[in-house]
Amino acid sequence: MPDRAPQPVDRQLPTDEARDLISLVRDIAQREIAPKAAEEEDAGHFPREVLTLLSESGLLGLPYDSEYGGGDQPYEVYLQVLEELAAARLTVGLGVSVHTLACHALANYGTKEQQVEHLPAMLGGGLLGAYCLSEPSSGSDAASLRTKAVRDGEDWVITGTKAWITHGGVADFYTVLARTGGEGARGITAFLVPGDAEGLSAALPEKKMGMKGSPTAQVHFDGVRIPDDRRIGDEGQGFAIALSALDSGRLGIAACAIGVAQAALDEAVAYATGRQQFGRPIADFQGLRFMLADMATQIEAGRALYLAAARLRDAGRPFAKQAAMAKLHCTDTAMKVTTDAVQVLGGYGYTADFPAERFMREAKVLQIVEGTNQIQRMVIARHLAGPESR
To answer: Is 370 an active-site residue?
Structure first.
C-alpha cells in the first residue's frame, strides 16, 4: 500500500502569529510526539519530557496573560493547538488541557500577589498541574465532595481523597476543591497545593483501557497544611470557581476529541486508498466512500461547534450551553469516527499494528471526563427549559 500522508487541516486563524503558532505545534507534533506515540502508550510511558518542551516553547499557558508568562492567545487559537497535539497523541493534548484547567482558578480568581508569586512558574516555568474535584463517592454530584479543609490559625489543614486525577502523583501543583463550610455547593473553597506538600501522596495509577501513558490516580491528603495565602478566592466560592473552570475545560476536551477523530479519519483514508480488493482500491466502493464522507462531515461539524463556543468566550459572552454542546457532540463524534475507522481497516483495524484500535480506546474516555455526556445533556436542557422540578 502507498504511504499516503494526511493533509494538514485547513484552519481559519485570526492572525499571522496564530498561523506561525500552529506551524510550530505541527512541527513539534511530527518530530517529537507522533513517532513515539504508539510505542510509549503501549509501554505506559508518561511523556514528561514532551510537556517540558511544550512549556519551554510557550505552549503551556497560551490562553493566559503574557504579564505572567502566558501566550495572550484567544481560546479560538488555543483550542486548535490542543486539537493538533491530541491528533498526534491524546496523552499530550489532554495533558495540556488539564494543566490549563489547573491554572484557571489562580489566573482568574487569585489576588495580584498570588498571581505574581505563582503564575510565571505554572505557565512557563516547566511546572505541571492537576485539578482535584472528583472523589470516590462524588463524581457527577461534585457538590457533595467530602474532602475537608479546616482552619488552624493562619493555615488550613486538608484531609480527604480525590479520585480520577489526571497527573496524580506526577503534578507539581494541585488545584484542590475542599469543604470549608456546610453541606452543598456553598461550603466549598479552592486551594493551590504544592505537589511536594507533606501529607500528600498518590495511589498507584489506574489500569485503563486507553491513554495508558497518562497517569490517572487517587490523591490522598493526610493533614496537608498550607498557609491561607494559598486559598484562591473567598471562602465558599470554590464551587463557582470549579464550574467556571469546567466550562472552559469542556472546550478543551471537545478540541482533543476532534483531534483524535481527525487522526482516525486520516488513517482510514490512507488505508482505503491503498488497500486493493477485487482489483481496485477499496476507497472506490460506494459503501466505504459514504462512510469516509460521513466521518469527515461529523468532524467538520464538531470543529465548527467548538470554535463557535470559543469565539463566544473570547467575546466575553455566555458560553456554558455551547461548551456543553461542543463537549457532547465532539466526544460522541470521536467515538463514532474511531469505531468506523476500525471498520474501514477490517481485521487490521482490530490489531495493534495500526493505530485505529488505540484511537477507539482513547475516544471512549472523552465521553466521560469533565462531566459525562449525560451531564452535558442535563446542562443543555437546563438552559432550554430551566432547572428540574424538585
So the answer is: yes
Nearest to 212 by CA among 79, 44, 51: 44
User: CA nearest 238: which of 360, 133, 87?
Assistant: 133
Low-confidence winner among 5-14, 38-47, 252-261 (lowest mean pLDDT): 5-14
How far is the C-alpha of 330 from the C-alpha of 334, rounded, in Å?
Answer: 6
Give me the torsion for CA of 244, 238, 380, 301, rounded to 10°: 30
Among 83, 33, 6, 122, which residue's Cα sits nearest to residue 261? 83
For 40, residues 6+ apart whose C-beta sits below 8 A from its C-beta are: 47, 89, 213
Polymer length in residues for the chain: 390
8 Å CB contact between 134 and 278 = no
Query: Measured between alpha carbons, how far is 372 from 365 in angstroms, rounded to an integer?
Result: 9
Query: Which three cell numbers, joined as nine digits, stand for 303?
Result: 470543529
> CA torsion sign, 309 to 358 to 94 to 82?
negative
Cα-trace Rg, the chain: 21
Q: How many whole angstroms separate alpha carbon 81 and alpha carbon 66? A: 17
**pLDDT tens per residue, range 130-168:** 999 999 998 888 899 999 999 999 999 999 999 999 999
Q: Which three cell numbers stand for residue 267?
A: 488513517
Selected catalytic residue, list 32, 39, 370, 388: 370
> What values do phi and psi take at 93, rounded to 5?
-60, -45
> Mind giving me the DSSP string for 11-57?
---SSHHHHHHHHHHHHHIIIIIHHHHHHHHHHT---HHHHHHHHHT
Q: Which amino acid is at 199?
A: G
